[in-house]
Design a protein that fits this description.
about 260 residues, 11 helices, 9 strands, two-stranded parallel ribbon, alpha/beta
């Protein structure tokens, strides 16, 4: 899957990984890049940086009708969408103390937004004979997330949903990948570092901290190979292998790791 001459939609694209992907897709020769975000001004700045092949659309991805409207606006402006990147996400910083609002909001953005994107795009892509979904799911969905229960649970659910989509629509021309980075230098992580939050400490202790542009490079390579798992941090694959080879040992190791962070 190559983005040249494709129409691409990226949600959560006003900053961080989403911004880096939108800019990189434009550099790769995308026919149109739709920059979607709840931060309308931020999305407009990214679209302006790209130029005439881009447009900004304010979108609340937790609302099905707004995601459908985003898909409609993209196709009206540039033509059939070839790649839809469901990238927007939220964190809570809470564990057992997470309240109903934490859970509801995180499920809406980190899981249902992917459901809404698929609902809007899959029928069109299948009817046209092909298309691609890239869902940002995080390594947390594969190896959990110390300190943030809603984030760990919803990112795992997001991967499960992407697997379901691939199983049911791969033979109908739909490509699906999940982007699962570990530590990336974004504003959200920066805030956690400033607050010395357990999740941020775990990320910093687990591997390299990548720039969003490096993640975008891995995305280009992963899409070209049409890999389901796109892993900017290759060590995540080894962590997953250990998890499934011996779940009890892995859980014990993770528990000791969390204890060490709390000391």
């Amino acid at each position: 899957m190559r983005v040249r001459d494709k129409v691409v939609v990226v949600t959560g694209a006003a900053s961080g990984i989403g911004r880096a992907m939108a800019l990189r897709f434009a550099a790769e020769g995308a026919a149109g890049v739709v920059v979607a975000d709840l931060d309308e001004a931020g999305a407009a700045r990214v679209a302006k940086d790209i130029g005439e092949r881009a447009m900004a659309v304010r979108t609340d991805v937790s609302v099905r009708e707004e995601v459908t409207a985003l898909a409609d606006a993209a196709e009206e402006a540039f033509g059939p969408v070839g790649l839809f990147c469901s990238n927007a996400g939220v964190i809570t910083g809470h564990g057992l103390d997470a309240d109903d609002l934490d859970w509801t909001r995180t499920i809406s953005v980190n899981v249902l937004a992917h459901v809404y994107a698929a609902g809007a795009m899959v029928p069109r892509m299948v009817e046209r004979g092909g298309g691609y979904l890239l869902n940002t799911c995080s390594a947390a969905g594969m190896i959990s997330c110390p300190g943030d229960a809603p984030y760990a649970v919803t990112k795992s659910a997001a991967i499960a949903y992407a697997e379901w989509l691939s199983i049911h629509y791969r033979t109908k021309g739909l490509g699906v990948s999940v982007l699962c980075p570990q530590g990336v230098r974004t504003a959200l992580l920066g805030q956690g570092m400033d607050e010395h939050h357990l999740t941020a400490r775990a990320v910093l202790a687990s591997g390299a901290l990548l720039e969003p542009e490096a993640v975008a490079q891995t995305v280009i390579e992963g899409l070209d190979a049409e890999r389901f798992h796109i892993l900017p941090h290759p060590e995540v694959a080894e962590f997953v292998r250990r998890k499934y080879d011996d779940p009890d040992r892995w859980l014990s190791g993770m528990a000791r790791f969390v204890d060490s962070l709390e000391e």
